[in-house]
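FYI - complex with pyridoxal-5'-phosphate, inputs then prediction.
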Amino acid sequence: MIAYESLQQVNKEFMDEYTNAFQSVLHGGWYILGKEVAQFEQSFASYCGVEHCIGVASGLDALVLSLRYFGFKPGDEVIVPANTYIASILAIMQVGLKPVLVEPDVTTYNIDPEKIESAITVRTRAILVVHLYGKMCDMDPILLVAEQYDLKVVEDCAQAHGAIYKGQKAGSCGDFGAFSFYPTKNLGALGDAGAITCKDHELNKSIRTLRNYGSSAKYVFDEVGYNSRLDELQAAFLSVKLKYLDKITAHKQKLAAIYRRELKSDFILPGVQAGFEDVYHIFAIRHAERDRLKKYLLNNNIGTEIHYPIAPHQQKAMNGILSGASYPVSEEIHRTILSLPISYGHTEEDINRVVEVMNKFS
Ligand SMILES: *Cc1c(COP(=O)(O)O)cnc(C)c1O
C-alpha cells in the first residue's frame, strides 16, 4: 500500500533529534515563552527574509491575530479566495469581519488577481491571499490593487513554507504572513503550532502583546488579548525540522517533477509560472472522472486525498452566510481535483508506481 501520507515515515529521520529537544526542554524547567520559542522565532524570521516572527498557538490564530491588529469595524469586508481551506474564512468571521469570496484561477488554484477589483466596495479593508497547495499567489498585481484602494494584505502561508515568488519568500510580501505548523504541513510540528511574520516593528510589538492576554509587561494589560502562545516544546521540535525544510522541499519538488514528466496528458497538472518556486504541500491534479479515478487508485493500493471535497460556500456551516451565490470555477475545482502522494516519506519508486497505475486508467 502506498499511503497518501504517513507522519511516522516523514518524521522517522528526526526522531533522535526530537528526543534530545524534548529532554532539553523537560530538564530546562521553563515551559512557556522560553528560549526555544525565542530561538525558533529568530530562525524562522531569517528563513522567511523578514525582521520579525511571533510564535502563536495555531495557523487559525495567526490569521485571527493578524486581522485583529488592524482594528477594522464590525462588518468591514475582507477579500479571500472562494476555494480556500475554511480556516481562512473562519478567521475573518472570528474578528467580526465579512468574507467576500473571489474566484480562483483554474490552472494555478490561487486567487485570480484580475477578479479582485470588481469585488472591492467602500467597506473593503483587506485582501487575505492564500498560497494554496504550496504555490504563491501572483503578488505584484495584488499588491498594486491593494495600494490603489488602500487595503491591507495578509498572506495565509499555511501551505507555503519556503515558497518563492520573484525572489521573495511566502510571508514577506504582505503586512503579515500567517503560518500553520500543523503536523502535516511542510514545516510540521508534533502538535498544534503557528506563527506570524512581519517586517514592521510596531506590528511585531502589538502581536506579541495580543498573543499573551494583551499584556505589555507582567500583569499590565493594554489590550483585550488572547492566550495564543507557541508552545515551548513545539518550538524546540520546529527548530529541529526547520534545519531540514529545504531538504524536505527539494524532495517534494523531485517527486513533482516525476509526475510532470511521466503522467499522460489525460490528467490536468497544476500550472507552473516563471519566477515561482512551488513547494508542493499538495500535488493536485484534475480529472473529469475524479471519483472513479480515486477509487481505481485505492483498488490498486494507492491512497489519495481531496483538498477539498466541498467548497466553503456550500458547507452547512456557511448556510445563510456564504450560500446563495455561485462560484463556478471554484465548484469545478472542488468537483475534479485529486491530491496525489507527494510526502517526504515517499520514495521515487513509490511515485513511479503511482504513475504506472495512473497511466493505465481509462
Ligand atoms: C492548515 C491551514 C490553516 C489552519 O491552520 P491550523 O494550524 O490548523 O489552525 C489555515 N489556512 C490554510 C490554507 C491551511 O491549510
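The mean pLDDT is 97. The pocket of pyridoxal-5'-phosphate is lined by residues 58-60, 84-85, 87-88, 130, 156, 158-159, 180, 182, 192, 194 (CB under 6 Å).
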